[in-house]
Amino acid sequence: MHQLRRAAVFTAALLGASAFAQAETLTIATVNNSDMIIMQKLSPKWEEATGNKLNWVVLEENVLRQRVTTDIATNGAQFDVITIGSYEAPIWGKQEWLVSLDDLGDDYDYADLIPSVKDGVSYDGKMYAAPFYAESSFTFYRKDLFEAAGLTMPERPTYDQIAEFAAKLTDKSKEQYGFCQRGKPGWGENMAFVGPMVNAFGGRWFDEQWAPQLTSEPWKTAVSYYVKNMNEYGPPGAAANGHNENRALFATGHCALWVDATSAAGYIFNPAESQVADKTAFALAPSAVTDRGAGWFWAWSLAVPSSSAKVDVAKSFIKWATSKDYVKLVGESEGWVAAPPGTRKSTYDSADYQKAAPFAKVVYDAVSNADITKPTKDPVPYVGIQYVAIPEFQGIGTTVGQQIAAALAGQVTVDQALETAQRAAERTMKQAGYPK
Amino acid sequence: MHPNTRSKLWLTALGWFAALVIFFPILWMILTSFKTEINAIATPPVVLAAPTLENYVAVRERADYIHFALNSIIISFGATLLATLIAVPAAYAMAFFPGRRTKDLLLWMLSTKMMPAVGVLIPIYLLFRDLHALDTRWGLIVVYTLMNLPIVVWMLYTFFKEVPKDILEAGRMDGAKPKQEVWMLLLPLSLPGIASTALLSIILCWNEAFWSLNLTSSNAAPLTTFIASFSAPEGLFWAKLSAASTVAIAPILVFGWMSQRQLVRGLTFGAVK
User: Fold this and answer.
1) pLDDT digits (tens, 9 = 90+) for A230-272
2) Which of A40, A223, B90, B159 has the most CB atoms in a 10 Å sphere around its CB?
3) Cβ–Cβ < 8 Å for A256, A141
């Protein structure tokens, strides 16, 4: 009897030890936003189902970008799953810093991914990151103010119409502003708005020979429009406002018009976070001479660095977190309005989602029409709408953003700002050896 | 009112005003941590309407505060202890047995503080990767020790210079060896200075964000990483960020408050002869 018990205990210990040996701990680096917080909250379900553990490293977007870039470029192997944007995915995929995610299985339903989103995180036909949520930009406007002023917002307004609306809806005595846009310099800040606006005015970052086009007529017209309207109809200190500042202004009723991320719609619609939840409506991003590239495109995605020693487990987590079932899980546990937007067609087919998110169709149209491979009126050698998917762009984009912020603050003229930006861009591109 | 009393009153009022101005950002952060997110962004600002603890609950749910706080304590105190152990003999030698190049050496040490940290990020990162020091407490203790060593040596050197040489010489005459001289005479005499140096070093380590963000991920991440996880360029988390910041600075604030007498004594040490 004793021997039998001893054998049973031994077997149990062995089984326990083997189960322990199979369980892995993944380190996942992610950004601090609501969708990722929900993923962190729901991830114990994956841990329970697989026996694996997750170590979370949550960082502010720019800190995360620097941290993950340092690690992946030096083969530091600190992370098994990383959160990257559609800017990094093709560049890092090309460098072979990421593991291809084309083998997640038939049940992953790749065909359900919105094609523009899948293209955004792929390089050379291979998907290097799985989209977690995607966004474009569109126009938030206050329907109560429009009604009171007898104005009608078209499905896709033009920048001329936006300027007219802004003039009529600005009432500085009531601290109400008609043109709340990003002014804080940075390639992911003011340039996220200015870039698509330049596209709409018919401009482009580079011509087909990679020559910078910053002093071309469309850039001058677009940036002059931006500076004029921001100064006349924008809030005070607009040059320092980023997404959060404008979101706070809009949510507290100080803005009549705001062109920004579609992903902010859920919060503006949430009465707990917004005083204008029942007074807001949406239209597509404004166009001018073209609507090509008028709304930006961004997809936060999960990827596996090639340096990870736990590729299979990492893929298993990514498959779970970006699946149709996960979207459903969020919808059922957190409310459908909180479901990760912009990645899967099935999300937009869901009656529950359509009911909870009245902005669903506009977001779907904006994201699926955002073609990063044809972002401008004239042909370009690059992909990307508000960014150019080359490593040099972060530096160039931020320098141009700083010059435009200086023009907005009145320190230089628009022409001077664009000439300085053009020289800096030419220098960088020459040093990097373009055209390649 | 006597002119002396009036000027004292003015000075007191000025002192309070200056203290309030300096303390105001911290006070505002603490107030914001008790607001809802919508009140935190309200314009004009809401001072305190319907205080809530929801941000603290959210912070507690999302991150293991004790883990981060423990890392901060171990790393800050460990680095300070190591820096002090190295700096005391160095400062002793420089203060009491200066050579021709002592001043240049001191200046050179301080000049290393002028280099932007990001300039050596990649070499340090590669070194840490090869030494398996990434995301370890000992790795960060070494970096913080090296980072603060120039300031600790400088401060201790200044404090040691204030100790009358005659006392040490008298000790030597009585047969004290250098170790005894430092341990039994120098250290007790300059204890307030050493305490304030250590306190400053702990505060510098506690607040350091660049290296902690770049060299740690989860195991050794201190409170600066904890705060960074609540910041976002897209998403209004100001109330939660304030709650996270409040609990992150609370230990060092209490520690500083408890040791303020020692700190002030140390900072004014030798000011009046």
Assistant:
1) 999 999 989 889 998 899 999 999 999 999 999 888 889 888 7
2) A223
3) yes
Q: Which amino acid is at A268?
A: I
Considering only CB atoms, which chain B residues are within 8 Å of A60? 228-229, 231-233
- With contacts defined as CB-CB under 8 Å, which chain A residues touch B139? none
What does the pLDDT look like over B162-214, one tens digit per residue? 888 888 888 888 888 888 888 888 888 888 889 889 999 999 999 999 999 99
B273 inside domain: no
Query: Is this model's pTM higher than 0.80 or not?
Result: yes
Domains of chain A: 2-135+297-356 (3.40.190.10), 137-296+379-431 (3.40.190.10)
Domain count for chain B, please give it: 1
User: Is it the case that residue A121 has pLDDT exceeding 90?
Assistant: yes
For A70, which of B62, B121, B221 is closest by C-beta distance? B121
Reported confidence tier of residue A19, pLDDT bands at 50, 70, 90: very low
Q: How confident is the model at residue A20 (pLDDT cuts 50, 70, 90)?
A: very low
Alpha carbon distances (Å) from B141 to A315, B117, B127, B216 = 35, 16, 15, 12
Q: Which chain B residues are within 8 Å of A78, Cβ to Cβ?
A: 134-135, 217
CB neighbours of residue B100 within 10 Å: 7
Alpha carbon of B234 to those of A188, A235, B117, B121: distances in Å? Answer: 11, 19, 27, 27
- Nearest-by-CA chain B residue for A61: B232
- Give per-residue pLDDT as tens, B5-53: 888 999 999 999 999 999 999 999 999 999 988 888 887 888 877 899 9
Say whether B213 and A247 touch across the interface (CB within 8 A): no
**Closest chain B residue by Cα to residue A33:** B235
Mean pLDDT of A374-403: 94
Measured between CA atoms, the residue of chain B closest to residue A42 is B62
Q: What is the ipTM of this complex?
A: 0.80
- Cβ partners under 8 Å of residue B58, min gap 6: B240, B243
- Is B5 a domain residue? no
Size of interface A-B (CB pairs under 8 A): 103
Nearest-Cα residue of chain A relative to residue B130: A76
Q: Do the Cβ atoms of B37 and A273 come within 8 Å?
A: yes
Residues B235, A32: C-beta atoms closer than 8 Å: yes
Chain B contacts of A187, Cβ < 8 Å?
none
> Would residue B237 count as lying in a domain?
no
Judging contacts by C-beta atoms under 8 Å, the chain A residues touching residue B130 are none
Mean pLDDT of A313-339: 95
Chain B nearest CA to A1, separation (Å): 45
Torsion sign, CA atoms A31, A242, A382, A134: positive
Residues on chain B touching A273 (C-beta within 8 angstroms) = 37-38, 236
Q: What is the pLDDT of residues A347-375, one digit of tens each?
A: 999 999 999 888 898 889 889 988 898 99
Range of the domain at B214: 64-229
**CA pair distance A59, B51, nearest whole angstrom:** 27
Q: What CATH number is associated with residue B194?
A: 1.10.3720.10
Interface touch A61/B232, C-beta < 8 Å:
yes
| Nearest CA among A147, A212, A202 for reference residue A395 | A212
Examine residue B191 and state whether it is found in any structural domain, yes or no.
yes
pLDDT, position A14 = 42
Q: Which residue has the tokens 């790795």?
A: B139
| Facing residue for B228 by CB, picked from A33, A60, A254 | A60
Q: Are B231 and A58 in contact (CB under 8 A)?
A: no
pLDDT confidence tier of residue A218, bands split at 50, 70 and 90: very high
